[in-house]
Amino acid sequence: MFDIGFWELLLISIIALVVIGPERLPSAAAKVGKIIGQVRRTWMGVKNEFMREAQTEELRRQIAEQKAKIESLQTPSLERVMDLDNVTDQYKTEEQLEQPSESQESQAPRVEAAENVTPEVVSASESLNIQSPSSDSQK
C-alpha cells in the first residue's frame, strides 16, 4: 500500500515517542494497529467484491456468447430439415408423375393375356363355360 522503508519508520516512531510520551505509546500503537488492520480488511473486502463482480460479468458475457452460438447452430439445422422436406415432397411428386395410373396398370396384363390366347384355350374355356372378362363388361 505505502512504500515506507526502515528509516521512515524509525523517524515516525521517534516523533511519536516525543509527542505522545513513553506511558501512552504502547496503547496508541495498539490502537493504530487495530485501525490499520480494519482499513486493510475493508480494502480487501471491497477489492474482492469488485473482482467477484467482474468475474460474474465475464461469465454472463460468455454464457450469452455460447447461447448465440447454439442458436446459430440450431437455425441452419431447422433450415436443412425444411429443405429436406421440400426435396422429399418434390421426389414424391416426380414419382407420382412417372408411375402409370392404376387403370393403365390393370389393363396391361389383360392385353398381354389376350394376345397369348390360342384356339385350344378358347375351346377349353367354352367347354368349361368360362366367360372372358371382356364379355362380363359387355353385359
Structure description:
- By secondary structure, the protein is an all-alpha fold.
- 85% of the residues lie in helices and 0% in strands.
- It has 5 helices and no strands.
- The chain has helices at residues 6-20, 25-98, 102-115, 119-127, 133-138.
- The longest helix has 74 residues, at 25-98.
Labels describing this entry:
single chain, 139 residues, mainly alpha, 85% helix, rod-shaped, disordered C terminus
Major β-sheet, in short? Answer: none
Measure the end-to-end span.
117 Å
Our count of helices gives 5
Number of distinct beta strands: 0
Give the class from helix and strand content and strand pairing: mainly alpha
Assembly state of the chains shown:
single chain
Which stretches are low in confidence, meaning pLDDT under 50 for 5 or more residues running? 135-139
pLDDT average, as an integer?
77
List strands and helices in order, with pairings.
Layout (H helix, E strand, L loop, with lengths): L5 H15 L4 H74 L3 H14 L3 H9 L5 H6 L1
What's this, in brief?
This protein has 5 helices and no strands. It has 139 residues and is mainly alpha-helical.
